[in-house]
Specification:
One of its GO terms (molecular function) is peptidyl-prolyl cis-trans isomerase activity. This protein is α+β, with helices and mostly antiparallel strands and about 290 residues long. Helix content is about 25%, strand content about 20%. The protein has a nine-stranded antiparallel sheet with strand order 5-15-3-4-12-10-11-7-6.
Length: about 290
């Protein structure tokens, strides 16, 4: 009897040992699986973190660039200035920012005056002129002033110097000068701040550009430039020089700057953007073969 009970206890013990062994093995497998899953999760997090740091989850940069404003147009109150003319505003996005656009100014003074508008340095000024030209803003207006700096001032339908569109925009390409003091004299041999043939915007006050522009018929050097450059004359500079030589009369404010003979812009047009070989690379103002 005693031996029989001993065998039963031994068998029960062996069964218990086998169950404990199976449970221990299962526990080890479960821990191995959990450890593997944890390691995989850590690896995924490391890869995802690296990808995020490198910008893999950023939105398409082309889409961001396309969504950015190239130019900003500040509204102007036409009720406060009756000389302003509402013809809408240019686009703010998707404007060309490289190459040039050809501008042609036809006046009653001779052959057309042609210029290249610089889209790289002055995209907003060029966009504004192109927009206004597309609305015939400049057509049949007068160049109302021959300035003391040696430039023809145009682009104001009112002829008062106060006219323009119902928006304004900031300065872009204002020339820099090496002199540290605006009151100092220009250094000898220094290139002119505004070479003959320069096309620049003009506004009052400076920095609130609209439609008015200058075409320089002689070199002008200053230590305090205020006119942002938009382009360069490529043809008809002799016509501009001829207009610059016209006698002037009082403009009604006591300033003897109004051309005695009316200088009328019959039309002003702006062509499509040109880049690379299609754009002129000479950079030098050219004279028209025939002056009217």
């Amino acid at each position: 009897m005693a031996s029989s009970r001993d065998r039963q206890r031994k068998l029960a013990r062996a069964k218990l040992d086998r169950q404990l062994a199976r449970r221990a093995a299962a526990t080890r497998r479960r821990r191995q699986i959990q450890a593997g899953v944890g390691a995989a999760l850590v690896l995924v997090l490391i890869v995802a973190g690296s990808a995020w740091a490198l910008g893999a989850f950023d939105s398409d940069p082309k889409q961001n660039t396309a969504a950015e404003d190239t130019c900003l147009w500040t509204p102007q109150d036409a009720t406060a200035n009756i000389n302003l003319k509402d013809v809408g505003t240019p686009e703010t996005k998707g404007l060309p920012t490289a190459g040039t656009r050809a501008m042609t100014v036809t006046t009653n003074q001779g052959a057309p005056i042609t210029a290249e508008l610089n889209l790289t340095n002055s995209p907003c000024a060029a966009a504004s002129i192109a927009h206004l030209a597309s609305r015939s803003f400049y057509d049949n207006t007068k160049c109302h002033e021959i300035t003391a700096e040696g430039a023809l001032r145009c682009g104001d339908p009112s002829g008062t110097g106060l006219g323009g569109p119902t928006y304004s925009f900031y300065d872009e390409e204002v020339p820099t000068v090496p002199s540290a003091s605006p009151s100092a004299s220009p250094a000898p041999g220094q290139p002119p701040t505004y070479p003959k043939g320069t096309v620049a915007m003009i506004s009052n006050p400076p920095g609130s550009n609209g439609s008015q522009f200058l075409i320089f018929f002689k070199d002008f050097t200053t230590t305090d430039p205020k006119y942002p450059v938009v382009g360069t004359v490529t043809g008809g500079l002799d016509v501009v020089e001829k207009i610059g030589a016209l006698p002037t009369v009082d403009n009604g404010t006591g300033a003897k700057v109004k051309p005695k003979t009316d200088v009328v812009i019959q039309s002003l047009t702006v062509g499509e953007p040109a880049t690379g070989a299609a754009a002129s690379t000479s950079g030098a103002p050219a004279s028209s073969p025939s002056a009217g």
